[in-house]
Every structure is written in structure tokens, then in C-alpha cells.
Design brief:
The chain is α/β, with parallel strands linked by helices. The strands form two sheets. An eight-stranded mixed beta sheet has the order 5-4-6-3-7-8-9-10, with helices on both faces. Strands 1-2 form a two-stranded antiparallel ribbon. Strand 4, helix 11 and strand 5 form a beta-alpha-beta unit. The chain is elongated, with a radius of gyration of 38 Å. About 19% of the residues have low confidence. The structure holds guanosine-5'-diphosphate (2 copies). The site of one guanosine-5'-diphosphate has 9 residues, from strand 5 and helix 12.
């Protein structure tokens, strides 16, 4: 489920992390290179041994000619102190032999702290990620990558508003954050994406079981009307919802209010018979509102807790269809109108949901075929676009293949 969406988000986390880390590595290596360049002028036992050797020979030669062994030491120490022209100094020193002793002593003292400091500095600079210590994430670091993500989301059927909101939220969250450790970048990005998606999915809805219980107290069944176009899995979903609430101990009755197609009545009857659920049906072409009304009366008469009303699903642009929906709504006053959409149709299902919402007002959404949906665009967008919660996901073809939708589950699925 939603593999492609997951790939996009985890890819973004990796890219942002790599981008910032690479930039800093580059900066660090540049600093190192310039340091090394400076140091190469300085004779150094390890990196410029030849220079040292030659200079030492030079000093030795000079010292020998002057027969003053101490100068040898002084000259050599001078090199270690990082003064390339020490050989001259050596000469000078040897000429002012009175000062030589002092010089040597002080230079010996200086050598140790100098060397220690340099090696500390060096190990710090070469310490791979010590550089990020004062780094702050800038807009420049993430702009291109987030733009790429936005394009990828749009391609993956994520609604424009949703893609924009995610990018905006992640940017606001990340820019200006201080990085202290290497993993901070990916941790922060992951966190920012999670927050953005949680906000997108966080839409208040009512718990159906609670609603059933409330209705029960008044002696009424809970009436749920299912809307959506044909082929999305509406009939199967009604059968699944029957199963789901039967398992919770409730007794549903199904209303075959799609009287437009004979096939719809047959199909629903097939499921109802298999499940042992009472189905109220009229002839093809009958008044759908009358069928729904009868089902409600049946439930009241028999003390059944749940009325599940199937409706016709011609194109959502069909005015007669919408009038039919409105009439059913007027006649039975459903407690919930649930839009059933096919997750695989992406933006189309979001658009359809909007049309039904405009016409009759939707309380919640069931997305079918989530099991086959790699893109996840509809699942991520649909609730945000119409500001109604996803209640269930259809996850297969059998009656038990339905799960209550939880935003935190979705976040876990796509961010991990
Ligand atoms: P309707 O015309 O909207 O009533 O659609 P149906 O209920 O007849 O379903 C159409 C097809 O989608 C059927 O083959 C169902 O088995 C299949 N279907 C429905 N829901 C799901 C689901 O959640 N996952 C999968 N994989 N298939 C589903
Ligand atoms: P059962 O005892 O649970 O099998 O239900 P009944 O067949 O006795 O029906 C109870 C009520 O539901 C009746 O008063 C009818 O009004 C209504 N009903 C049941 N089946 C149908 C049907 O096919 N069409 C219509 N319109 N109403 C029905």
C-alpha cells in the first residue's frame, strides 16, 4: 500500500540530508585543503621531510664550520616551530652566541604547545562531521528538493492544495533549524514531513459505533446512506460494513436503493444472502427513496440497529442522480452519508467526492482498493480537500477486507 508515496517521502529525507551533508563536507575539505597549502610552506617532519632533511644538513654544515653544536639544535627546533627561514636565524643566533641558550630554551617550550594545538585542530577539522556544529538549515538547502517533491506528489495524484500545504509546512519547520549532529538533518526532515502529513490527515470525525449506541438509546436505527459512482466497490463495501458491525453484535438491514440498474439489486441480494442479512428491495425503476423508507421501517419494526442504503451511481455530473440522492436524504434523514471512492482513480475520486459533497453533504469517506494502490494520492488528499474524514479503507475482495482508517497508521505507512 502507498509504496510510491513512501518512496517519495523517504527519498526526500535522503536527498535533503545528503545535500546538506555534502555541502558541508565540501566546505570542510576546502578548509582542509587551504590549511594544508599553508602548512606546506612550513617544514614539517611528516609531510615535508625532504625540506627538513636538506635544511638540517645545511645547519649541520654551518654548525660544523662554526664548531658550535648548540646551534644545530636551535636550528632544528626553529624549523619545528614553523619558521622556514630559520637557517638564517640560526646563522644570526650563532653570531650572537650569548643569546643562543635562551632562544633554544624558549623555542623548546614553544614547540610543544604549538604542536599539540595543531594536531588538535587538525583532528577536529578532519573529524568528519564536526563542521556541522554551527550549521543552520537555509531555504537554499531545501528549496530545489522540496520543489521536486511537490512535482512528484502531483504526479502521484496528490491534490494540488495538499502538495502545496506539505511543502509549505516542511519548509517552515526546517528553515532556521540548527544542526548539531549528523543525523539531525534526516531526523528533522522526517519529523517535519510527519507533522505536515498528520495535519493533512487530522480531520475530526464521529465514531460510528458510538453513533449506533446513541441512536439505540432513542430506539432508532442508525441510518447510513452510501453514495458514489458505479464500479468503485460500493456494493462490496456495504457487504463489508455489514460484516464489520455484525461482528460487533449489531444487526443491519440493507436497502437496495439503486433501482436504476437491475444488476445492482441482484448483486446486493447476492451479498446479503451470503451474509444472511435482510435486504429490502423493490423492482427496477422503483422510487429509491421509498425503498430506503421501507428499510428504515423494517429496522424499527425488528429492532435492527443499522440501515445501510445503497444508491445509484451514474456519473456524478448527472442532475437526476443528484436529485435522487437529495430525495432519499429528505425522506429518511440519514445520520451519515458516506462517499465510497476507488483509491486507484486518484484525483478522479477526489473530484467525485467534491461533487457529492456539494450536492448532499458528505460525513465521511470509504476508499476501496487501497490494497492495490501504490500511489496513495487519493488517500492522502481526499479528506483534506473536502474536510471530511476517511472512515475505512477497503483492503481486498473478501468481506473481512476492511479496516478502520487511522491517520497515525497512514503516517506510519508512508514515513515509517
Ligand atoms: P460497485 O459497482 O461500486 O457496487 O462495485 P462492486 O462492489 O461490484 O465492486 C467492483 C469490483 O471491485 C469487484 O470486483 C470487487 O470485488 C472489487 N473491490 C471492491 N472493493 C475492493 C477492495 O477493497 N479491494 C480490491 N482489491 N477489490 C475491491
Ligand atoms: P423479516 O421478518 O425480517 O424477514 O421481514 P419481513 O419480510 O417480515 O418484512 C418486514 C417489513 O419490511 C415489512 O413490513 C415490509 O414493509 C418491509 N419489507 C420487507 N421486504 C420488503 C421488500 O422487499 N420491499 C419492501 N418495500 N418492503 C419490504
Amino acid at each position: 500500500m502507498f509504496e510510491s508515496l513512501k518512496k517519495k517521502f523517504t527519498g526526500t529525507i535522503g536527498k535533503i540530508s545528503d545535500n546538506i551533508t555534502e555541502e558541508d563536507e565540501l566546505e570542510a575539505s576546502e578548509t582542509k585543503v587551504s590549511e594544508t597549502t599553508e602548512k606546506s610552506e612550513i617544514p614539517d617532519k611528516s609531510s615535508n621531510g625532504k625540506f627538513v632533511d636538506e635544511s638540517v644538513k645545511e645547519i649541520q654544515a654551518e654548525s660544523e664550520s662554526k664548531s658550535e653544536p648548540d646551534n644545530n639544535k636551535s636550528g632544528f627546533m626553529g624549523f619545528l616551530r614553523g619558521k622556514p627561514k630559520t637557517s638564517k636565524e640560526v646563522k644570526d643566533d650563532s653570531e650572537h652566541s650569548a643569546e643562543t641558550e635562551l632562544e633554544i630554551e624558549s623555542s623548546t617550550d614553544e614547540i610543544k604547545p604549538d604542536n599539540t594545538e595543531t594536531s588538535e585542530e587538525e583532528s577536529e577539522k578532519s573529524g568528519i562531521f564536526s563542521f556541522v556544529r554551527h550549521r543552520t538549515i537555509s531555504e537554499k538547502d531545501i528549496d530545489d528538493i522540496l520543489f521536486e517533491l511537490e512535482m512528484a506528489l502531483l504526479e502521484g495524484d496528490v491534490a494540488m492544495d495538499v502538495a502545496e500545504e506539505i511543502i509549505k509546512s516542511v519548509k517552515e519547520n526546517l528553515v532556521g533549524r540548527k544542526i548539531k549532529r549528523r543525523n539531525d538533518v534526516s531526523d528533522f526532515t522526517k519529523e517535519a514531513l510527519k507533522k505536515a502529513i498528520e495535519n493533512i490527515l487530522d480531520i475530526e470525525g464521529r465514531d460510528i459505533t458510538m453513533l449506533i449506541e446513541e441512536a439505540k438509546k432513542t430506539g432508532e436505527p442508525l441510518k447510513i446512506m452510501f453514495v458514489g459512482i458505479n464500479g468503485t466497490g460500493k456494493t462490496t463495501t456495504i457487504a463489508k460494513i455489514s460484516t464489520y458491525y455484525m461482528e460487533k453484535g449489531y444487526t443491519p438491514v440493507i436497502a437496495a436503493s439503486d433501482t436504476f440498474r437491475a444488476g445492482a439489486i441482484e448483486q446486493l441480494t447476492y451479498h446479503a444472502d451470503k451474509l444472511g442479512v435482510k435486504i429490502i428491495k423493490h423492482k427496477k425503476g422503483a422510487d429509491p427513496a421509498a425503498v430506503a423508507y421501507d428499510a428504515v421501517e423494517h429496522a424499527k419494526a425488528k429492532g435492527k440497529e443499522l440501515v445501510l442504503v445503497d444508491t445509484a451511481g451514474r456519473m456524478q455530473t448527472n442532475i437526476n442522480l443528484m436529485d435522487e440522492m437529495k430525495k432519499i436524504k429528505r425522506v429518511i434523514k440519514p445520520d451519515l452519508i458516506i462517499y465510497v471512492g476507488d483509491a486507484l482513480t486518484g484525483n478522479d475520486s477526489v473530484e467525485q467526492a467534491q461533487k457529492f459533497n456539494d450536492a448532499v453533504g458528505i460525513d465521511g469517506i470509504i476508499l476501496t482498493k487501497a490494497d492495490a494502490d501504490a500511489k496513495g494520492g487519493a488517500a492522502l488528499s481526499i479528506g483534506y480537500v473536502i474536510q471530511k474524514p476517511i472512515l475505512f479503507l477497503g483492503t481486498g475482495q473478501s468481506y473481512s477486507d476492511i479496516m478502520e482508517f487511522k491517520p497515525e497508521w497512514m503516517v506510519e505507512q508512508i514515513i515509517g
